[in-house]
UniProtKB/TrEMBL annotation, chains A, B:
<dbReference type="InterPro" id="IPR011234">
    <property type="entry name" value="Fumarylacetoacetase-like_C"/>
</dbReference>
<feature type="domain" description="Fumarylacetoacetase-like C-terminal">
    <location>
        <begin position="127"/>
        <end position="410"/>
    </location>
</feature>
<dbReference type="InterPro" id="IPR036663">
    <property type="entry name" value="Fumarylacetoacetase_C_sf"/>
</dbReference>
<dbReference type="InterPro" id="IPR005959">
    <property type="entry name" value="Fumarylacetoacetase"/>
</dbReference>
<comment type="pathway">
    <text>Amino-acid degradation; L-phenylalanine degradation; acetoacetate and fumarate from L-phenylalanine: step 6/6.</text>
</comment>
<dbReference type="GO" id="GO:0016787">
    <property type="term" value="F:hydrolase activity"/>
</dbReference>
<feature type="domain" description="Fumarylacetoacetase N-terminal">
    <location>
        <begin position="21"/>
        <end position="120"/>
    </location>
</feature>
<keyword id="KW-0106">Calcium</keyword>
<dbReference type="Pfam" id="PF01557">
    <property type="entry name" value="FAA_hydrolase"/>
</dbReference>
<dbReference type="Pfam" id="PF09298">
    <property type="entry name" value="FAA_hydrolase_N"/>
</dbReference>
<dbReference type="InterPro" id="IPR036462">
    <property type="entry name" value="Fumarylacetoacetase_N_sf"/>
</dbReference>
<keyword id="KW-0828">Tyrosine catabolism</keyword>
<keyword id="KW-0460">Magnesium</keyword>
<keyword id="KW-0585">Phenylalanine catabolism</keyword>
<protein>
    <recommendedName>
        <fullName>fumarylacetoacetase</fullName>
        <ecNumber>3.7.1.2</ecNumber>
    </recommendedName>
</protein>
<keyword id="KW-0378">Hydrolase</keyword>
<keyword id="KW-0479">Metal-binding</keyword>
Length: 421, 421
């Protein structure tokens, strides 16, 4: 697919994350502090809330859906409205747009450099999956040995667990090292102390844009998905190791989950669809895919020690997932579980087959046994205070890329006394 | 504590669940279908939304907090406002109230028999715990053998997992038997089929009425709790057995969770506080309780086959919990996990030490090996289509009881084809 040319010149470069082909949805504020819905194009943000209020571009002729600091009301309108809005916006920003249109959109836009970005949607509920086979194999090998690495159900079920929506934050939010119950392997009893093995997990997040009541097929699930973000599922490995049996991770995953600030729509990613890998065990019919449901999106992780330069510690691709978000969502509904607009599905850590493509420090340092060398001369087994972690993602077209904006967070030191008031 | 006498005569009997000592909060509608906040007293419901609009009884002088079909905005006001509102309502309903007050409250009330009850609050997020030691021991024995019954962390951590808020329903909502992945012990591969081992779990639900950002102490956690409901955590045991390793229960618990319709406030339960059991292993300091944090509440479960009489299949008491809701909530915040108004915490199944006091059919029928005899002559290993399950709860005072209203649901047969449209 070629670059779609825009009259916004900064959107026509191979370097921008936000060409006309992308048009991702976010929430921004400028000096006045007012939160507004916006669309990224090159180095500018179109004020979608302003365009709606002025009657220049409306998603719904009868109701304001962008007069709130989130895209949930817009998502409620459904796929036809999503497509019509995107088509109208594409036309208004294309190089064929009239002078009048250009003037209007220039008025209702701000330089991205002057904006602060906020959570682009209200998270209804957050579910995290475990859909990367390399990740599951690596972690399973470390926790249970190579022979029991992949749980017996893994090739049949897109394994998932419910996470904590209240802990989801937008890129840029600092993340404080948590306290938790830790038990050393040779200790009889646990202690309550700051986490020593704080980690990242490189994931994609799928945003559910339409509700469901009963079970849905994979095709129906795909149609319900509004878009994708990058997602870092911060993980306290020492807390997790002691707490996770028998009911799964709980406080180990509840400190924070960071998402990138722009919702890249499923429409923008359409040209980059790729199939899930060949099945090693036949899937049950309800999980069969009617077409390619993954996306060819390059992903990477960089770690920046405080006051030092960044090192890219991992490079992988979304196509390494074994189950697609549509399959995960279909499985999520099998019990009759109602899904809601704004539900967020984390893909699970996306690790590739090589050592350099592992999406967590747990895997990169093999449980701390093989610390990762940084360009600064330091090394890391797990995250240290002051470290900034950044996830990058890009689907690469012919002379352009579809980017997500960074998914970033800096580690603050643990509180000295979490109960001091 | 003695009965507080009300001018509402039906509130002064030993049989009523709703004496003046109780005053639980719910949401109701009558013929016009309009949902309103209400307070139960004897066989009547006081229209709290109407009293607020009329200026007769306001929780906040400056804002309407009861003009919505849930008590969340009221909870936001905090413990001082909760106490002041309860005191005012108690005075207005006491036998010492003036004629004028009686007339006003009679005008703003309806017979309970003419009302339909709805969810009393919006569930922000739902967490389910595993805090009954007898239950954990029973289930552990069946799943992992008597020697590994209690997981090593159980005596140190109030084990919990995040559930699905969208699946929480009010008493009276029918529950459809789910489909799911099932794998027979001797089968190589799973099948997708209707659940064959559908079960109940007798629990209490604690409702978080105040938010938190960082870790909170047990005392602070107790102060954040607004009230309690009865809770049935419907469970698909065959789905759970195949899916739960390594990340915990997911679709097995997502069909529905039923709660009783009235929020019984912490204030109403205050006279019934009892301590948690003696510790077999010392708790970490952050879990120590400053006082008694459980409640002496008699609990029972009845099973009613379609067209037959009810059988009480279990009797137990909330004091059988090993960890209190305050301890669970304190643990929930250790990671820095933000808690929100409307968060619901399930206690975990509350089983007593005897066979007759077990809070699930899994335990009562010992995994199906010892079917439970019903008064109708039938027996049950797990729930059958048409069965109605009812949880009852009562704290017993001197000549009165604090009740919750029934927590009830009937099992509908599984869909023939869950994907037929």
């Amino acid at each position: 697919m070629p670059l779609l040319k825009s009259w916004v010149e900064s959107a026509n470069t191979p370097e921008t994350a936000f060409p006309l082909n992308n048009l991702p949805y976010g929430v921004f504020s400028t000096e006045d502090g007012d939160l507004r819905c916006g669309v990224a194009i090159g180095n500018r943000i179109i004020d979608a809330t302003g365009l709606e209020a002025a009657g220049i571009l409306r998603a719904d002729p009868n109701a304001d859906v962008l007069d709130a600091p989130f895209w949930n009301d817009f998502m409620e309108l459904g796929p036809d409205a999503w497509a019509a809005y995107r088509a109208a916006l594409t036309a208004m920003l294309s190089e064929e747009a009239s002078e009048e249109t250009r003037d209007a959109l220039t008025t209702y836009s701000v330089p991205m450099a002057e904006a602060t970005l906020h959570m682009p949607f209200q998270v209804a509920e957050y579910t995290d999956f475990y859909a990367g086979k390399n990740h599951a194999t690596n972690v399973g090998t470390m926790f249970r040995g190579a022979e029991n690495a992949l749980p017996p159900n893994w090739l049949s079920i897109p394994i998932g667990y419910n996470g904590r929506a209240s802990s989801v934050v937008v890129s840029g939010t600092p993340v404080r090292r948590p306290w938790g119950q830790l038990k050393a392997p040779d200790a009889d009893l646990p202690v309550f102390a700051p986490c020593k093995r704080f980690d990242l997990e490189l994931e994609m997040g799928a945003i559910v844009g339409q509700p469901s009541e009963g079970p849905v097929t994979v095709a129906e699930a795909d149609a319900m998905i509004f878009g994708y973000v990058l997602l870092n599922d911060w993980s306290a490995r020492d807390v997790q190791a002691w707490e996770y049996q028998p009911l799964g991770p709980f406080q180990a995953k509840a400190t924070a989950t960071t998402v990138s600030p722009w919702i890249v729509t499923k429409a923008a990613l359409e040209p980059f669809r790729v199939p899930t890998p060949e099945r090693e065990r036949p899937l049950l019919a309800y999980l069969e895919e009617p077409g390619p449901m993954l996306y060819d999106i390059d992903l990477s992780v960089s770690l920046t020690p405080e006051g030092n330069a960044a090192t890219t510690i991992a490079r992988t691709n979304m196509r390494e997932m074994y189950y697609s978000a549509a399959q995960q969502l279909a499985h999520h509904t099998t019990s009759g579980c109602p899904m809601r607009v704004g539900d967020l599905l984390g893909s699970g850590t996306i690790s590739g087959p090589t050592k350099e493509s592992r999406g967590s420090l747990l895997e990169l340092s093999w449980g701390g046994k093989e610390p990762v060398a940084l360009d600064s001369g330091e090394s890391r087994s797990f995250l240290e205070d002051g470290d900034t972690l950044t996830l990058h993602g890009a689907a690469r077209g012919d002379g352009f890329q579809i980017g997500f904006g960074n998914c970033e967070g800096q580690i603050l030191p643990a509180l000295e006394d979490p109960y001091a008031r």
